[in-house]
Each structure stands twice: as structure tokens, then as C-alpha cells.
Amino acid sequence: MKKKNIVKKNDDYNRIIRKYPPYKYKDYVIYLERTDDKTYHFGFSVGKKIGNAVTRNKIKRQLKNILDKKDYKNGFNCIIIVRKSILLKNYQEREMNLWNALNTLNIIKEKKDEQTNEKIS
Questions:
Q1: What local confidence, expressed as pLDDT, does residue 109 receive?
Q2: CA–CA separation, 1 vs 47, rounded Å?
Q3: How far is CA 6 from CA 2, 80, 90, in A?
Q4: Among 21, 37, 43, 75, which one has the highest count of C-beta atoms within 10 angstroms of its own C-beta?
């Protein structure tokens, strides 16, 4: 994930979390802010209850890797807060749960086949 697509400022985290309602899923709580920007931004929050610094950084690296696999629509800021239940999941389950959550929020671009003009998921 490119550094320009990451929410970095504490003020941005606080504004998004205070202003917008949470979308709660099995392993994640997601806050979504729609903007008029021509880019998208993701922010991650992994609390100390999840584990030590090594574990928290590993989860953040895995989330960034999962998010790199898809293309996203422009014009949103997304804060992903990780729940403790993520420790019980392996990488594939984390990936599937995150993609299901992002699909319900309708921020993933749908790819179309050039020849048949059909949607590819």
C-alpha cells in the first residue's frame, strides 16, 4: 500500500470516528467518510489488547497486503479497527472477512471483461 493512501494524522482519525457511524463486523469495526477527493485513504488501529508490538505490526502488514490486492473507488477515507477475535483466524479467513466487509460498503471497483462487458469479481 502506498504511503499516500494511508490516514496518518491523529486529527483525521478523531474526526472520522466522532462524526461517522461504525459498521461492525466479526473481526473489524469500520468507519467510512465519503469525500470529494480523487484518492482514497485507509487507516488502521490495532489496540494493545490484541498483543505485543510484534503481533500488532504483523496484523497491520497483513491488512495492507490484503488491501493491495483490489482496486478501490475514489473519494473516501476508511478507518479499520481490529477486534480481538482476529487472533483466532488465519490469513485466508482474515482476507475473506475483510473483503466481505468492504464489498458491503461498496468501495471496491468492479472489474469488467473487455470482450464480453461482463462483471468479473
A1: 86
A2: 21
A3: 7, 11, 24
A4: 43
